Amino acid sequence: EVQLVETGGGLIQPGGSLRLSCAASGITVGINYMSWVRQAPGKGLEWVSTIYSGGATEYAGSVKGRFTISRDTSNNTMYLQMNGLRAEDTAFYYCARRYSGHFDFWGQGTLVTVSS
Amino acid sequence: QSVLTQPPSVSAAPGQKVTISCSGKTSNIGHNGVSWYQQLPGSAPKVIIDDNNQRPSGIPDRFSGSKSGTSATLVITGLQTGDEADYYCGTWDSSLSAGYVFGTGTKVSVL
């Protein structure tokens, strides 16, 4: 059974930094395309970033230069380092596996609140 | 920020049919397969249609998808109360740095 568990969310002041983790079981992070998708409370879904099996990364324009996606294959975990946080980054952050053009496995999400 | 347009809401009585449209452009729907996601209240999204019309294992055939040009459609037949949820279309966009794009979302209500 595949499980993706996000941790690291919380309340952070504008301009601050936070690192989210996505611990995977049942799939191997290093050989899959793994992504972060976020959803502001009461709003729609927004793709944030993807890390490909070869290590290449891709970011949405709204976070490029501020967020960094990475992975640690030794503990089968993906990360999202978020710097320069803004109020508009407030959202539930989901990790998901991209498979053949869609996201087939999702975590339960972790809430990031950016507020003073 | 959503580049795919969906109606905000649709509704129907139990047993009836609802249709949800998803409108995009050549660089996204026109060139790539469309997926549909169901998000029940308080839950993470779940893929119910991928590659325009393919149902993943376990998804009932009451859910069907199609694509034509730069638009896609999700049809739910035999509507059940458990189908009340938000539905999102999604696909990759071939425009520079566009990445994956989702629709604006549609709330399905069972009357």
Task: Indicate the structural class of chain B.
Answer: mainly beta
What structural class do helix, strand and pairing data of chain A support? mainly beta
Helix content of chain A: under 10%
- Morphology of chain A: globular
SSE order of chain B, as H and E? EEEEEEEEE
E-strand count of chain B: 9
Task: Indicate the proportion of strand residues of chain B.
Answer: 35-45%
The coarse overall form of chain B would be globular
Model regions low in confidence, pLDDT < 50 over at least 5 residues of chain A: none
As a whole number of angstroms, the C-alpha radius of gyration of chain B is 13 Å
H/I helix tally of chain B? 0
Q: So what's the oligomer here?
A: heterodimer
What is the overall pLDDT average of chain A?
96
Instruction: Tell how many strands the DSSP assignment of chain A holds.
Output: 11
Describe the biggest sheet of chain B? 6 strands, mixed
Number of continuous helical runs of chain A: 0
How are helices and strands ordered from N to C of chain A?
A: EEEEEEEEEEE
